Structures are given as C-alpha cells and as structure tokens.
Amino acid sequence: MSDEGKEASAPRLGFHPAQARKYRVERLVRPSQWSPGIRVASADEYERFTEQFARELLATCTPDHLAVIAAQHMMYADELKCVLEEKKAEQVAIVEVAEKLTAEIATKVSMIALTAYRTHLSNKRADAVKEGKKDVIAHARVIAAEAWSKDTEQKIKIGKMAKMVFGELKETEHCKLVISIGAVRKWIGPVAPSYASKPGR
Question: Is residue 11 part of a domain?
C-alpha cells in the first residue's frame, strides 16, 4: 500500500513516554557536593556531603583555622538552641495568654447574653402584668358601673363600691393583681356617678 493510502495517525496529547522519563530523571538529579543553600535530602547524602566538605577544609585550612571554625560552629549551634528554646517559651506564653483572654471574653459574652436574657424575661413579665392590670381595671369598672346603674336610691358611695368590687375581683383570676381597696377606688373613679363621690351624711 502506498503512503498516500495510509490514514494519518491521530495527534497525541501530553508528554511522550521518553519525555516523561527524561523529566523524572532530571527532577531526581542531585548535586555531587554540598554548597551553601543546598538542602540535604537523606542520611547517605549527609554523610557524603560531610566527607567531601571535610576533605575540602583540610586541603584549604590550617589546623588552627579549623579549630576556630569548629569553636564558632559549636557556639553558634548552642546559641541557636537557646534562641529556639526562648522562642518556644514565648510561643507557649503567648498561647497561655491567648487562652486566658479567650476564656475571659467567653465569660463576659456569656454574662452579657445572660443579662440580656434576664432583662428580656423581666420586660416580658412586666408587659404581661401591664396587660393584665389593664384587664382587671376594665373589669373593675364594669362591675362598678353595673352596680351603680342598679342603685336607684343613690346610696352606694365610692368607698363602699370599692370594697364590693375588691371582694369580687379577689374571686377571679386577677386576684394577684388586686393589691388594695384604695387601688380599686382609684380604678373605678372615672365611672363613679357624682353622688358617689359626695361626702356621706
């Protein structure tokens, strides 16, 4: 079959297998010796880099110079250890302070929420008492108005009516809101006829 009769192969997407292998190999290549900035990747690499670097130091430095370098390195390592321990202690102290502040804030928030809830309940109870008081005052005036409407001889004074209404209200569900006869007298005042407020004989 001629080349013209062959179908064109479909284009391939992504890396060619050979390219992928080359990419992996390039990523795995490590430096042959240590230099500043290179991170050690394994224990074997650490030993190899150390041995190579030691030979280089022996070839370029005198024993006195090597002793100075070793002393400086030991002092630097100890100083670094102390700094790290101080930083760790500071971090622990910061965490402790943060935990304490968080606990204090949580307590304050809880107290604020509790106070707000208690205030809400208190206001709710006060509103309920006000509404109940309106009902009992209206009820007291109805009782008094009906009784005075039947008082054809005009003998019932406001003080006597207050006692009568007080007694009736004490038998209702409003009994806890009826504190005194004097309060009832004030409640029924607006519906009292003129003769009821005149001084008696």
Answer: no
Q: 184: number of CA atoms within 13 Å, CB side?
A: 27
| Number of separate domains in the chain | 1
In this structure, is residue 18 part of a structural domain? Answer: no
pLDDT single digits (tens) 129-187: 777 788 888 889 999 999 999 988 888 999 999 999 999 888 887 778 888 899 889 99
CA 190 to mean position of chain CA atoms: 54
> Which residue in the block uniquely carries the two structure tokens 């935990």?
99
- Distances 65 to 36, 50, 51, 55, 59 between C-alpha atoms, Å: 19, 18, 18, 14, 12
Q: Is residue 19 part of a domain?
A: no
Q: pTM score, two decimals?
A: 0.40
Are 198 and 155 contacting, i.e. CB atoms less than 8 angstroms apart?
no
Lookup result for tokens 């009994």? 175
Domain extent for 106: 41-197
**Is 82 a domain residue?**
yes
